[in-house]
Amino acid sequence: MTYDCDVLVIGGGIVGLSTAYALTRTRPGTRVTVLEKEPGPARHQTGRNSGVIHSGIYYAPGSLKARFAVRGAAEMVKFCTEYDIPHAVTGKLIVASDRAELPRLHALVQRGRENGIPVRELGPAQIAEFEPQVSGIAGIHVGTTGVCDFTAVADRLAHASGAEVRYGAEVTVIDRRPERGVAVRTADGTVLRARALVNCAGLHCDRVARLAGDDPGMRIIPFRGEYYDLARPELVRGLVYPVPDPAFPFLGVHLTRGIDGGVHIGPNAVPALAREGYGWSVLRPRDLAETLTWPGSRHIARRHWRYGAGELQRSLSKAAFTEAVRRLLPAVSEADLRPAKAGVRAQAVLRDGTLVDDFLIREAPRTVHVLNAPSPAATASLPIGREVARRVLGVLG
Question: Which of 47, 52, 177, 313 has the most CB atoms in a 10 Å sphere around its CB?
Answer without folding.
Answer: 52
